[in-house]
Amino acid sequence: MADQNRSRRGLMLVLSSPSGAGKTTIARELLKSDSNLVSSVSATTRPPRPGEIEGVDYYFVTVPHFERMTSANEFLEHARVFDNFYGTPRVHVENQLNMGRDVLFDIDWQGTQQLRENARDDLVSIFILPPSLAELERRLRGRAQDPEDIVRKRMARASDEMSHWPEYDYIVVNHDLANSISEVRTILAAERLKRARQIGLGDFVKSMRGA
Ligand code: 5GP
Fold first, then answer.
1. Can you tell me the distance from the alpha carbon of 174 to that of 171, in angstroms, rounded to the nearest whole number?
2. 144 Rama sector, left if φ>0, alpha if ψ -120 to 50, beta otherwise
3. Bridge-partner residues for 37, per DSSP?
């Protein structure tokens, strides 16, 4: 398995969606069942929610710290989302890709746009749509972790975020969680087999042809 990994450069699997469309659950299930997939951990200036763990869910940093990281070019991409800053620290991601691991990103359309500009060949982007706006609202309220004004702001932004679906490679409508997870797994499996990603293939075939 290790040799197989070395002969392939890792890909960047981006999942975006409006909050509440099921993206976080899908990401968690994929990471649990796929040992070659690791998560990118973003830095954010927003405060932790109950249960969130430093270094696992996010690196929680102050605004001056975030600004220092930005000026030092430590982010692969960064954006302001709602009233906070979010960014993907570059070092971990680049190390994992070079080792042939695939990296999962839970980032918004602004970050995806930046990755597309800087790393197009490595990028596989999926937009998760909720089955309906009513269901999206139900899920956002069911989560009950955020104050009412934040929920309202997110609902208002959901339709904005959803307008970016045509910029993504794949669209998954999350009618049923198990089915959506399986669809994302299928996308990942196919993308891993793309000829351009299998960089050791030339030598492999050459050796079989005795050349
Ligand atoms: P939340 O605060 O709910 O964890 O995330 C809010 C939004 O920020 C989500 O749409 C999430 O995908 C996005 N986000 C999280 N981390 C990053 C990041 O590093 N970069 C960008 N561009 N967006 C992020």
1. 10
2. left
3. 102
CB 147 within 8 A of CB 50: no
Domain ranges of the chain: 2-40+102-209
Ligand 1 touching residue 20 (CB < 6 A): no
Write the burial class of residue 90 (CB in 10 Å: 0-12 exposed, 13-18 middle, 19+ buried): middle
- Is there an atom of ligand 1 within 6 Å of 79 CB? yes
Half-sphere exposure of residue 146: CA atoms within 13 angstroms, side-chain side = 18
| CATH classification for the domain delimited by 2-40+102-209, as one of 3.40.50.720, 3.90.950.20, 3.40.640.10, 3.40.50.300 | 3.40.50.300
Ligand 1 atom index nearest CA of 43: 19
CA dihedral 86, 71, 56, 18 (to 10 degrees): 10
Q: Note the pLDDT tens digit of each residue in 135-180.
A: 888 887 766 667 888 788 778 888 899 999 999 999 999 999 999 9
Question: What is the value of pTM for the model shown?
Answer: 0.91
At 63, is the secondary structure helix, strand, or coil? Answer: helix
Best residue for ligand 1 mutational test, from 41, 82, 106 (most atoms within 8 Å of Cβ): 106
Cα 205 to averaged position of ligand 1 atoms, centre (Å): 42
Q: Dump pLDDT digits (tens) for 87-111.
A: 999 999 999 998 999 999 999 999 9
Spacing, Cα 16 to ligand 1 middle (Å)? 9
